[in-house]
């Protein structure tokens, strides 16, 4: 469950909103020369956001629009967490795929992001998008339940793979399960 806290500096009141979730869409930035990690994206997700002159927030207590600060986080994790990498964008002329290689762990520790939860999850499946923004093909690598054996699914073909093969710059959707 997500939480969003908006703090009004005028009346010093906090407004907290809870929102159940099972998936998280992560915008992928174009990055050619440095390594980007899933944790980097999660850290940017929870950074404090200042609601300034161009984006004032209406405080129900003050009955006016005010500059405020907004923070987001995870209250507690659900049994499964689906992370979707937003790899496609449209520049007004044509669609394109962002091929930034995002590093993601086999075991994801969300303790620093979770308010009331241990937040440990293990990677159980990765869906890959092969191709470009105009056409492509989806394949999948999944961990066999109860084991550490991984399999690669490509249409009707199923092959055993090493766990390392579940990591690719073509990752589009990650599925984690709470430990």
* Average pLDDT for all residues: 90
What structural class should be given to the helix and strand makeup? mainly beta
How much of the residues is beta strand, in percent? Answer: over 45%
Could you give the order of the helices and strands?
Answer: EEEEHEEEEEEEEEEEEEE
What would you give as the CATH superfamily?
Answer: Cysteine proteinases
Structure description:
InterPro entries: Papain-like_cys_pep_sf (IPR038765), Peptidase_C19_UCH (IPR001394), Ub_carboxyl-term_hydrolase (IPR050185), USP (IPR028889). This is ubiquitinyl hydrolase 1. GO terms for molecular function: cysteine-type deubiquitinase activity. The protein is mainly beta and 179 residues long. It has a single domain (2-178), classed as Cysteine proteinases (Cathepsin B, Chain A, Alpha-Beta Complex), CATH 3.90.70. Helix content is 5%, strand content 52%. The protein has one helix spanning 38-46, and strands at 2-8, 13-19, 23-27, 36-37, 49-51, 57-59, 64-66, 68-74, 80-86, 88-90, 95-97, 102-103, 107-109, 120-131, 136-143, 150-154, 157-161, 171-178. The model has no long low-confidence stretch (mean pLDDT 90).
């Amino acid at each position: 469950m997500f939480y969003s806290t908006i703090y009004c500096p005028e009346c010093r009141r906090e407004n907290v909103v809870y929102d159940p979730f099972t998936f998280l869409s992560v915008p992928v930035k174009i990055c050619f020369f440095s390594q980007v990690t899933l944790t980097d994206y999660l850290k940017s997700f929870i950074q404090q956001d200042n609601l300034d002159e161009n984006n004032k927030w209406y405080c129900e207590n003050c009955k006016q629009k005010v500059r405020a600060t907004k923070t987001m986080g995870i209250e507690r994790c659900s049994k499964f967490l689906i992370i979707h990498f937003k790899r496609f964008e449209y520049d007004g002329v044509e669609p394109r795929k962002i091929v930034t290689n995002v590093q993601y762990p086999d075991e994801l520790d969300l303790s620093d992001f979770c308010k009331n939860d241990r937040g440990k999850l293990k990677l159980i499946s990765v869906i890959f998008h092969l191709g470009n923004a105009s056409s492509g093909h989806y394949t999948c690598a999944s961990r066999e339940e109860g084991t550490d054996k991984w399999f690669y699914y490509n249409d009707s073909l199923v092959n055993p793979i090493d766990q390392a093969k579940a990591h690719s710059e073509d990752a589009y959707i990650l599925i984690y399960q709470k430990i």
